[in-house]
Amino acid sequence: MATLHRTILRPLVTEKTSASYQERGEYTFEVAPDANKHSIKDAVERLFGVTVVGVWTMISRGKSRRVGQSIGRRPHTKKAIVKLQDGDSIAVFEG
């Protein structure tokens, strides 16, 4: 992983993730499949200027879908839930 933007692909903003950052201060990102917790923590801290307290990762397996007569597959994705220090926030999720 050469750059920070290759580690953190995009923020995931849904009803469930917005409730989690409002209640517990946890932010959810889609990350590179080969990213580990240390690189995710460093990337979030450097990109957004916040202090990360904890990182949890999960891999969502792609679902099989019919595409005409053949069967296609959605790609696997890796998500990271990042807990920030009290008082820190990320503006992408607020607006």
What is the compact description of this entry?
With 95 residues, the protein is an alpha+beta fold. It has four helices and six strands.
Description of the structure:
The protein has 95 residues and is α+β, with helices and mostly antiparallel strands. The chain has a single domain, classed as RRM (RNA recognition motif) domain (Alpha-Beta Plaits), CATH 3.30.70. It is built from four helices and six strands, in the order αβαβαββββα. The strands form two sheets. A four-stranded antiparallel sheet has the order 1-2-6-3. Strands 4-5 form a two-stranded antiparallel sheet. The longest helix has 12 residues. 15% of the residues are buried.
CATH top level label: Alpha Beta
Helical content, roughly? 25-40%
CATH architecture: 2-Layer Sandwich
Low-confidence stretches: none
The major β-sheet equals: 4 strands, antiparallel
The CATH homologous superfamily is named RRM (RNA recognition motif) domain
Give the SSE string.
Answer: HEHEHEEEEH
Features of the shown structure:
6 strands, 37% strand, 95 residues, two-stranded antiparallel sheet, four-stranded antiparallel beta sheet, alpha+beta, Alpha-Beta Plaits, elongated, single chain, 31% helix
Protein topology:
Elements: H1 4-7, E1 8-11, H2 15-23, E2 26-31, H3 37-48, E3 52-60, E4 64-67, E5 70-73, E6 77-84, H4 91-94
Antiparallel strand pairs: 1-2, 2-6, 3-6, 4-5
